[in-house]
Amino acid sequence: MMKKVSVLLVIFLTILSVNPAAAQTSKCFEKGNILLNPGIGIGTRSAGSGFFWPNFIFSADFGVHDYVSVGPYVAAAFGTNGRGALGVGARSSFHWWQLMDDKVAKDLKQDQFEMYFTVWLGAEIIRVKSNGNKNNAGGFDAGASLGFRWYPNANERFAFYGEWGRGPISWTTFGATINLN
To answer: What is the rounded CA–CA span in Å between residue 92 and residue 65?
Structure first.
């Protein structure tokens, strides 16, 4: 009997060592993650822009805590008649959905879905052309947004994301997230 228990224990420990995911629940976000977030913004808010300039946003999230990430961003918008904007800076996100899932008894599907709150600050350079004159302006810019990520089929490497609020250059951003871990 003891020999059977020992063999089963060795098999179980071998399986856990080969597949560490079997030993713990996977999370969308945790300390040590490196996430790359290319996206397209809708609702440009720069330079009297009109609402639908195409704009592109790229950010990175470096997990410094199970619930906190920090990283850089760069955003660019291209409008008509030589108008445009460029924003660069830093962002920090609080991944509160992960905290909620860790603290409540119910399964909030943290392996497939997460929500987070982001604050950012940086600089924005705006180029406006009106009446044949080109004017450049720039300055400090800051804001906050609410975001979500969905990892299809609990895929740990790829997700879709969306952010709403006063983000860099735009009011709304949609894109993909690539987890480098």
So the answer is: 11
Q: Would you list the domain boundaries of the chain?
A: 33-179
The tens digit of pLDDT for each residue in 5-51 reads 455 444 444 443 343 443 344 666 778 889 999 999 887 765 554 55
**What is the C-alpha to C-alpha distance for residues 181 and 166, in angstroms, rounded to an integer?**
29
Q: Which of 179, 32, 25, 19 lies closest to 102, judged by CA?
A: 25
Write the class of the CATH domain 33-179: mainly beta
3-class DSSP state of 100: helix
Is-contact 57 40, C-beta < 8 A? yes
Please give the Cα distance from 73 to 152 (Å, whole number). 25
Q: At 32, list the tokens.
A: 């040590």
Burial of 3 (0-12, 13-18, 19+ CB in 10 A): exposed
What's the confidence (pLDDT) of residue 51?
52
In the chain, alpha helices (H) = 2-18, 96-103
Residue 41: how many other CB atoms lie within 10 Å: 24
DSSP 103-146: HSSS---TTTEEEEEEEEEEEEEEEEEETTEEEEEEEEEEEEEE
* Interval 100-118: pLDDT, tens: 777 777 776 777 788 899 9
Distance CA 61, CA 59 (A): 7
